Amino acid sequence: MSDIVEQLKKVRKLQSRAAAAKISAFAMARTRVRW
User: Fold this and answer.
1) Which domain of life is it from (predicted)?
2) Residue 33 dihedral angles phi and psi, to the nearest 5°
């Protein structure tokens, strides 16, 4: 059971990182459009 929990934690970390990367990329694209 503990192995499954660890894997879930890893997946959530990766997902949150991907979401943060998408948000930052989107923000950069928006600022580029403004300039």
Assistant:
1) Bacteria
2) -65, -40
